[in-house]
Amino acid sequence: MESSEVIKNIVREKYSEIATNDKVANATSCCGATSSGTYTIMSDSYADLEGYNPDADLGLGCGLPTQFAKIQKGHTVLDLGSGAGNDCFVARAEAGETGKVIGVDFTPKMVQLARQNAEKRGLNNVEFRQGDIEDLPVSDDSVDVVVSNCVLNLVPDKAKVFQEIKRVLRPGGHFSISDVVLRGDLPQKLQDAAEMYAGCVAGAMQMDEYLDTIQAAGFEHMVVQKQKPILVPDDILLDYLSPEELQAFVDSKTGIFSITVYAEKAGGEKSHRAAKPKVNLAELATAGCCGPGCC
Fold this sequence. Notes:
Elements: H1 4-18, H2 23-26, H3 65-68, E1 76-80, H4 86-95, E2 100-105, H5 108-121, E3 126-130, E4 143-149, H6 158-168, E5 169-183, H7 188-191, H8 194-198, E6 205-206, H9 207-216, E7 220-229, H10 234-237, H11 243-252, E8 255-264, H12 281-285
């Protein structure tokens, strides 16, 4: 893949385009990668979540991090890669009028769209900031909860993002992040494809490396709250691979997964601490595969 700056320009340009599309157009893609078929990696529904408004849902997620984020009334919540504001508005319903929600997005057009959506709803405790999540425009120790939905896979330096999350969280604060990860290797042609990077696949880390990065950043009580397989349709893969290369990829049983991960910053009393033990990486390594062709 290209340098960090080239990658960031690809993402900015692609998501500027997505900001002008409706959910139906975006849902025919993997986070915006062009497809002749109709599918979406976001199979979970927001419909039953308080605060959800379809107008702010561009269909780009891969999980429901706010559902798992243990947001309480009065919390300050930060959404990384906030898009049109969908997860921010759900988080605001949980944090209440005494809480605060901050959305940060890399794409100016997305920030503009989110601000318009917040104004329509008359929400004065939700704000959107343009910025790079590798260098968050947020003060140290100022946030109770961080959420993110299918965004970190788009960022070149994921370790830096987790360090930034740790910096802005208050002692005892926590995050719940949904993301795309791999088990096995993507073909080089997929790794090099700009569309597959913008589509949340080529930029995905190996699952065990992703979890190791969280632990290396110093977070505690890490739990994989949800895991589900992602199937990228053959018609998309054939845009980049020959039929023979596609078959080799299928035979490799490379797994592409959406996971939602929870972890805490050390310090502070937490009455809502996760009861589960730290994730067992060996158990994840033996979990069932669902790559292209094996579902």
